[in-house]
Amino acid sequence: MLKYDKLIRPIAISIIRKNNSILVYERTDDISKDKFYRLVGGCIEFGELSKDALKREFHEELSLEIINCKLLSIFESIFTFNSSKMHETVFLYTSDFKDTNAYNKKNIEGLEGSRKFNAVWISVSDFLNEKYKIYPKEIVQYL
Fold this sequence. Notes:
Layout: E1 9-15, E2 17-18, E3 21-28, E4 35-39, E5 41-43, H1 50-62, E6 66-81, E7 84-97, E8 107-112, E9 115-123, H2 124-128
Parallel strand pairs: 1-7
Antiparallel strand pairs: 1-5, 2-3, 3-4, 3-9, 6-7, 8-9
């Protein structure tokens, strides 16, 4: 019998656009000090559909409702974060904020567990020309 030390983590994330920018938040690898950006979203719970998880995560993390959720792609992402090998199955969506006032904010305060963060609008060209890193890196082809 095979022993699995790690599990594959299913996540649902969304590209939300404002003109030529997308909503992301900054993360830092504690070991390598590598800074990068991620889309808002999170883990899919057992028995939960990816679209429902996405809506729940936006509500929990940003206290905002999203609409027009459209699945763009499903792919795997294997990477190292804080010296741990990770494996995610990614459900990538596009969506919109129900409250259009959210687009007028320079940043949107968020909470992921006990970690506070600021979601910000960054130009798509900054990711395309690799000024900033976005993970999973497969997202770039959908920008």
